[in-house]
Amino acid sequence: MNPKRTLFAPEHELYRDMVARFIAERITPHHERWEHEGMVPRELWRQAGQAGLLLPSTPESYGGGGGDFLHTLAVVEEIARALATGVTGFTTHSDIVAPYLLNFGTEDQKLRHLPAMARGDTVASLAITEPGAGSDVKAIRSTAARVDGGYLLNGQKTFITNGFHADRVLVAAKTDPAAGARGISLFWVDAATPGFTRGRLLDKVGQRAQDTAELFFQDVLVPDADLLGEPGQGFGYMMKELARERLMIAARCAMALESALQWTVDYARQRQAFGKALLDNQYIRFKLADIKTLAAATRAFVDGCVRQYLDGELDAAGAAMAKLWAAEATRAIDDLLQFHGGYGYMREYPIGRAYTDVRPNRIYGGASEIMRELIARTL
User: Fold this and answer.
1) pLDDT of residue 133
2) CA nearest 146: which of 232, 234, 215, 216?
3) Which residues are catalytic?
4) DSSP category for residue 67
5) How many CA atoms lie within 13 A of 303 on its CB side?
6) 227 SS3 class
7) What is the pTM of this model?
8) Nearest-angstrom CA–CA distance, 356 and 113
9) Strands (E), 17-130
10) Buried b (16+ CB within 10 A) or exposed e, 38-65
11) pLDDT tens digits for 292-314?
């Protein structure tokens, strides 16, 4: 049984086909080289903008595609299906950063920045994580001190997706360090501002074509016009947007597991061992049956949560459960790699790249341990 999906309308599937073609033609043939280089070329962002892959669910009045969250999911899922992890930053830019501007920015901020982001002329990133603060957002130490006409930003961020290419960075910093979570504000920082510097491209275990960098801020002057929303409201804004981000991660994991399972079934059909196909080995066949059931349950749960989100009914705990379940389900990729034998450990085989590239989903967007804590609070 393959659960029939009922979420997507024909218009979404047409868009999905376009996204899949773009990935197949513009990304997949070059992805291995980009992994060695540590990032995709800057021009790819403009090509993606021209093709309509950026800001698909942002209103047309702000330069976006005018679609809905299902158009976003089509991009998320096709990137996951193709293991095009070098461009997972497309969705960070389009469907994490852009909604902050859309939901909390001024009309001037939206009109000045969203069209350029949709075209790929401006690349955006989100900078929350610090060397001493990951899932515990309240522990960030970056500060933004009030001065005439704006704020002086000081601090350091790490593990920042799109950090190397970013023209604008949405930065979380404390404007009132004594106020805890109520003292965090968000700033839309121009990367050309004096005092802003980038560290090295980080040497990751997987997702090697996705540019990930450290960022440093030393007396960076952020004008009042680049404060996002109200001072001291940043933590609340982040909590509101995290449900969407976690649901996107869950959808990515569901597709990654399905794809890895299909690669393994295809391999087990044609690979011979001891005079018969691997799939004829009862243990392997039964294990694959278990993983197929797990993948089907994951798909049904995630799609159900997407439906709740579309209906405005998904709460923070529901999003946390979706992310926890789907991310933890990808542990099965370890078993799928095992059935490829030594070939599975080679990055030329997609299962080897999936083993490393899917792994961070259990960490970012809030680690699985944090998801359990959020869920436990509702008991």
Assistant:
1) 75
2) 232
3) 245
4) -
5) 15
6) strand
7) 0.95
8) 34
9) 124-127
10) bbbeeebbeebbeebbbbbbbeeebbbb
11) 999 999 999 999 999 999 999 99
